[in-house]
Write a structure and sequence with these properties.
Chain lengths: 426, 426
């Protein structure tokens, strides 16, 4: 499982998320058009076809109807979710931005921050239906001050996930629609008889959901498109191979496309980690998935030194980066691209996935080069503020006229001139 | 030109940007695939076909080659652009975000801010080729600290816009590629023999450019998709009809799809503005365009009172909102959705288009409901930071294990357990 920087494996890892979108484009476009045209009727048809669920029985749960699902969560698990919610709220409150005004050469300039009015969170059904997804997507919207937060989640094979609905109540969701796939995205993007149109759609989903989000992008806003998950661990001689192996497996168990890599320059450590992986794998329920993920897209990368490890990490721009080293804070500023950085030996990824507070919705597949974790900033928007005086115009008006004229936009120039010289100016 | 809140015109205004994207999807997808597969060869072919320009003669200008275009700008116009650049830099420096660390229940949490590595700015060719576009798109990227900023702009009908190239030098662009359309987007998204792949693409463009950006979204990041431009002016009895008319025309001259609306509850003012529009229109070069825009998508909306005016403005979520009222700051917090807000009688939109400092790349067509002006925040990304101690795990580890188990993710739970109890824990 040990490999080297010149390995062919690295190319496989980088390209593992590539999907031939073109193959799905027509199908998704058809579903979007159908929902846009036929509304609820189309939703009922697709939900029966794909989820084996009859929407006409129960289309959605309103806030007060969700409480029963929250109440039935076992006490210790409820405590965990309530604690996690508090931590997530607390961390995200640090991301709140304020309206500002500044004076600039006699003009008053500024930026007003306003929450988005309404948001829909997509939560997958079936095996990938996770309550932590609900907390991580809903809470930043609530902290931002979004007025209406709804959720769409399919009753896959006719079954609802009661824990997901309970946590939706805890998180403050206003309504949960039992729809999924591209049709759910279409419903909240266009609106139907029963579904109110929203301003932004967030949350993970399969290729149909992702492509539908891309196609409605512009009509509504969307978050980033999530690909398969990954962890990269930089381990020095201080690392505990048992911990490193456990953290790799926590990523590898997700799905066969997940990638779990440890980079080290300590050959002995590499061998120890390999042994631990074998040992711990045997005990896992999801051993088959984890083993396939490790064989194809994971392993222990042996490099020459720390600098090479960091260079490789930046080139991969991993979703999760673990610095299993003695002095992680000293490395922080060498890390250019990573979704979240887990520092030191007592910060396994799972702490961030569930509990500590920062968001677990992170840029995957190298997109940490340009995307950020989901945050409060994704649920507000800004308006520029400009206030000028007659004196400002007197001083700078002629320069602005010059610029407008250089672009051939006469009426732009006139709007300045009329204030300087009246209509005699033009 | 006066109309009322129940007018059919309002629906036309809202829907005026709607384009049947599906009609263009195959063409754009074909161009993208062709450039991905055939690189420069495809770029040369499309550029010859669409722009009547031979890329093999001159493919791009490097920074030092651009200086000649800057040097030839007339002195007074140069002064204007240099001043504008200073103002834009100054305003955008207020948007810079800082890395932070906070302590939370014994864990250290934080958020690291890092500039995006490389950005490409699209600047249209032909009639919509504006030097101000260059400043407004390039400067926030430079302020953010982006390492490499390139530009793509077509030599439409074989002709380059020398002023645009000169201002590209002033703004700090590293290289200008003489390519346009969907093929330019493909080139910087995928990379070719001559074009280096970038991490983010910004800038306005026609339907082909917009759709290409949408389709490469995810592989690279993009800015918002721009539609036709609009201004909404709320005018009270203190407004000067000459100024209001001039500002409406500065929007209406852009193109026939532009929308310029004044809302007022003062009937006399409405009549005065109407007269002024007629008078000022006659003098304009672009009178035909402006008149068509006003007839179809503009005019003076007569409402009952200020509250109704603000409600209407929020429902339109205009790109540009002008508060031509006596006390504009008192209205600021009633405005929920607007790209930029121009306050008072001496702040025509043109000041913001060119000079004051805030960005002129603004959300159009109602998308101010969820988009912000282009800003420094568009050219950085964040990484979460999490650092926990053994004590933190001892205290909260069991709750995290509960949550992982509730999702059936055994290895996630193990990664906590191994640190609490060693491998005996699982």
């Amino acid at each position: 499982m040990i490999f080297f920087p010149d390995s062919e494996k690295i190319k496989d890892i980088i390209n593992r998320g590539e999907v031939l979108e073109a193959d799905y484009l027509d199908t998704v476009q058809d579903i979007l058009n159908d929902v846009k045209l036929n509304g609820d009727k189309a939703l009922i048809k697709y939900t029966s076809q794909f989820d084996k669920y009859n929407l006409e029985e129960k289309f959605y749960f309103d806030r007060e109807e969700l409480k029963v699902f929250f109440d039935e969560i076992p006490e210790d698990l409820k405590t965990a979710f309530v604690n996690a919610k508090g931590n997530i709220e607390l961390f995200h409150s640090n991301q709140k931005e304020k309206t500002f005004l500044v004076e600039s050469k006699g003009a008053i300039l500024g930026q007003k921050v306003t929450p988005i009015d309404s948001v829909s969170v997509y939560v997958p059904g079936g095996k990938a239906s996770y309550p932590s997804t609900v907390l991580m997507n809903v809470i930043p919207a609530k902290v931002a001050g979004v007025n209406r937060v709804v959720m769409t989640t399919p009753a896959s094979n006719g079954e609802i996930n009661r824990l997901v609905l309970g946590v939706a109540y805890l998180a403050g969701v206003d309504r949960v629609y039992l729809i999924g796939g591209a049709q759910a995205i279409a419903a909240v993007a266009f609106g139907t008889e029963s579904v109110e149109k929203v301003d932004k759609i967030v949350g993970p989903g399969n290729i149909y959901v992702a492509l539908a989000k891309k196609l409605v992008f512009g009509l509504v806003d969307i978050d980033m498109i999530a690909g398969p998950s990954e962890i990269l661990i930089i381990a020095d001689e201080s690392a505990n191979p048992k911990y490193v192996a456990a953290d790799m497996l926590s990523q590898a168990e997700h799905d066969e496309l997940a990638s779990a890599i440890t980079i080290t320059w300590d050959k002995e450590l590499a061998i120890e980690i390999e042994k631990e992986l074998d040992f711990q794998l045997k005990k896992l329920n999801r051993a088959d998935i984890a083993r396939k993920s490790l064989d194809k897209f994971g392993g222990i990368l042996l490099v020459d030194n720390l600098d090479e490890a960091i260079e490789f990490a930046n080139s991969i721009a991993p979703e999760h980066l673990e610095l299993a080293v003695k002095n992680p804070f000293e490395l922080l500023y060498k890390i250019k691209h990573a979704g979240a950085i887990f520092m030191g030996h007592f910060t396994p990824e799972a702490i961030g996935d569930y509990f500590a507070g920062p968001n677990h919705t992170l840029p995957t597949g190298g997109t940490a080069r340009f995307y950020s974790p989901l945050g409060v900033y994704d649920f507000v928007k800004k308006s520029s503020i400009i206030n000028c005086s007659k004196e400002y115009l007197d001083k700078y008006g002629k320069l602005i006229v010059k610029m407008a004229e250089s672009e051939g936009l006469e009426a732009h120039a006139n709007s300045i001139k009329v204030r300087l010289e009246g209509r005699d100016g033009f």
